[in-house]
Protein backbone atom coordinates (compact mmCIF):
# COMPACT_ATOMS: atom_id res chain seq x y z
CA UNK A 1 0.00 0.00 0.00
CA UNK A 2 1.39 3.39 -0.90
CA UNK A 3 2.06 5.94 1.79
CA UNK A 4 -0.45 8.43 0.38
CA UNK A 5 -3.17 5.79 0.25
CA UNK A 6 -2.43 4.87 3.86
CA UNK A 7 -2.57 8.52 4.99
CA UNK A 8 -5.87 9.08 3.19
CA UNK A 9 -7.36 5.94 4.72
CA UNK A 10 -6.29 6.97 8.24
CA UNK A 11 -7.73 10.46 7.78
CA UNK A 12 -10.91 8.95 6.32
CA UNK A 13 -11.30 6.58 9.27
CA UNK A 14 -10.95 9.40 11.82
CA UNK A 15 -13.15 11.91 9.96
CA UNK A 16 -16.29 9.84 9.41
CA UNK A 17 -15.35 6.53 7.88
CA UNK A 18 -15.58 4.82 11.25
CA UNK A 19 -19.20 5.97 11.70
CA UNK A 20 -20.33 4.85 8.26
CA UNK A 21 -18.46 1.55 8.53
CA UNK A 22 -20.29 0.86 11.77
CA UNK A 23 -23.58 1.78 10.07
CA UNK A 24 -22.88 -0.81 7.37
CA UNK A 25 -22.02 -3.44 9.98
CA UNK A 26 -25.16 -2.61 11.98
CA UNK A 27 -27.23 -3.11 8.84
CA UNK A 28 -25.44 -6.43 8.35
CA UNK A 29 -26.26 -7.56 11.88
CA UNK A 30 -29.91 -6.66 11.35
CA UNK A 31 -29.92 -8.64 8.11
CA UNK A 32 -28.59 -11.73 9.89
CA UNK A 33 -31.74 -11.88 12.04
CA UNK A 34 -33.54 -13.79 9.30
CA UNK A 35 -32.24 -16.61 7.13
CA UNK A 36 -33.33 -14.75 4.01
CA UNK A 37 -31.22 -11.75 5.02
CA UNK A 38 -27.92 -13.63 5.35
CA UNK A 39 -26.71 -12.80 1.79
CA UNK A 40 -27.57 -9.15 2.44
CA UNK A 41 -25.67 -9.25 5.74
CA UNK A 42 -22.61 -10.74 4.09
CA UNK A 43 -22.65 -7.95 1.50
CA UNK A 44 -22.96 -5.40 4.31
CA UNK A 45 -19.85 -6.67 6.04
CA UNK A 46 -17.81 -6.68 2.82
CA UNK A 47 -18.91 -3.17 1.90
CA UNK A 48 -18.57 -2.08 5.53
CA UNK A 49 -14.91 -3.02 5.39
CA UNK A 50 -14.62 -0.88 2.27
CA UNK A 51 -16.39 1.92 4.14
CA UNK A 52 -13.67 1.78 6.80
CA UNK A 53 -10.77 1.89 4.29
CA UNK A 54 -12.07 3.01 0.84
CA UNK A 55 -8.92 4.38 -0.77
CA UNK A 56 -7.36 1.73 -2.98
CA UNK A 57 -10.59 -0.27 -3.30
CA UNK A 58 -13.48 -0.16 -5.72
CA UNK A 59 -16.71 -2.03 -6.27
CA UNK A 60 -17.37 -3.90 -9.49
CA UNK A 61 -20.22 -5.99 -10.79
CA UNK A 62 -19.46 -9.68 -10.25
CA UNK A 63 -20.83 -10.51 -13.71
CA UNK A 64 -18.28 -8.17 -15.31
CA UNK A 65 -15.49 -9.49 -13.10
CA UNK A 66 -16.08 -13.22 -13.55
CA UNK A 67 -17.96 -13.28 -16.85
CA UNK A 68 -20.60 -15.55 -15.28
CA UNK A 69 -24.06 -14.68 -14.04
CA UNK A 70 -24.98 -15.80 -10.52
CA UNK A 71 -27.94 -15.32 -8.18
CA UNK A 72 -26.89 -11.81 -7.23
CA UNK A 73 -26.37 -10.56 -10.77
CA UNK A 74 -29.58 -11.97 -12.28
CA UNK A 75 -33.25 -11.26 -11.79
CA UNK A 76 -33.15 -12.40 -8.15
CA UNK A 77 -30.40 -9.85 -7.56
CA UNK A 78 -32.66 -7.14 -8.96
CA UNK A 79 -35.45 -8.14 -6.59
CA UNK A 80 -32.94 -8.26 -3.73
CA UNK A 81 -31.70 -4.76 -4.57
CA UNK A 82 -35.26 -3.39 -4.53
CA UNK A 83 -35.88 -4.94 -1.11
CA UNK A 84 -32.48 -3.70 0.09
CA UNK A 85 -33.20 -0.17 -1.14
CA UNK A 86 -36.49 0.01 0.75
CA UNK A 87 -35.13 -1.22 4.09
CA UNK A 88 -31.50 -0.12 4.31
CA UNK A 89 -30.16 1.38 1.08
CA UNK A 90 -31.89 4.73 1.25
CA UNK A 91 -30.75 5.32 4.85
CA UNK A 92 -27.12 4.41 4.20
CA UNK A 93 -27.14 6.58 1.06
CA UNK A 94 -28.49 9.53 3.05
CA UNK A 95 -25.75 9.03 5.65
CA UNK A 96 -23.03 8.97 2.98
CA UNK A 97 -24.47 12.01 1.20
CA UNK A 98 -24.64 13.96 4.47
CA UNK A 99 -20.98 13.14 5.12
CA UNK A 100 -20.14 14.09 1.52
CA UNK A 101 -21.76 17.50 1.92
CA UNK A 102 -19.76 18.08 5.10
CA UNK A 103 -16.55 17.08 3.32
CA UNK A 104 -17.18 19.32 0.30
CA UNK A 105 -16.93 22.40 2.57
CA UNK A 106 -13.13 22.39 2.32
CA UNK A 107 -10.80 21.71 -0.59
CA UNK A 108 -8.96 19.08 1.44
CA UNK A 109 -12.24 17.22 2.01
CA UNK A 110 -13.09 16.82 -1.69
CA UNK A 111 -11.41 13.38 -2.11
CA UNK A 112 -13.30 12.18 0.97
CA UNK A 113 -16.58 13.53 -0.39
CA UNK A 114 -16.01 11.69 -3.68
CA UNK A 115 -15.52 8.43 -1.77
CA UNK A 116 -18.74 9.05 0.17
CA UNK A 117 -20.62 9.59 -3.09
CA UNK A 118 -19.22 6.32 -4.49
CA UNK A 119 -20.33 4.51 -1.35
CA UNK A 120 -23.75 6.21 -1.48
CA UNK A 121 -24.25 4.89 -5.02
CA UNK A 122 -23.09 1.45 -3.91
CA UNK A 123 -25.46 1.51 -0.94
CA UNK A 124 -28.44 1.82 -3.29
CA UNK A 125 -27.77 -1.47 -5.10
CA UNK A 126 -25.08 -3.59 -3.39
CA UNK A 127 -26.36 -7.04 -4.38
CA UNK A 128 -24.28 -8.45 -7.23
CA UNK A 129 -21.30 -6.20 -6.45
CA UNK A 130 -17.93 -7.16 -5.05
CA UNK A 131 -15.03 -5.14 -3.69
CA UNK A 132 -11.62 -5.42 -5.36
CA UNK A 133 -8.29 -3.81 -4.59
CA UNK A 134 -7.01 -1.37 -7.18
CA UNK A 135 -3.51 -2.01 -8.44
CA UNK A 136 -0.92 0.51 -7.24
UniProtKB/TrEMBL annotation:
Superkingdom, natural source: Bacteria
List, alphabetically, the InterPro entries matched: Inner_membrane_protein, UCP028777, YccF
For the keyword GTP-binding, the answer is no
Protein name in UniProt: Inner membrane protein YccF
Q: Where in the cell is it found?
A: Cell inner membrane
Keywords from the named record: Cell inner membrane, Cell membrane, Membrane, Transmembrane, Transmembrane helix
Q: How does it sit in the membrane?
A: Multi-pass membrane protein
Membrane spanning segments where? 7-26, 32-53, 74-91, 97-114
Segments forming domain Inner membrane component: 7-57, 79-129
| Source organism (scientific name) | Shewanella litoralis
Pfam families this protein is in? Answer: YccF
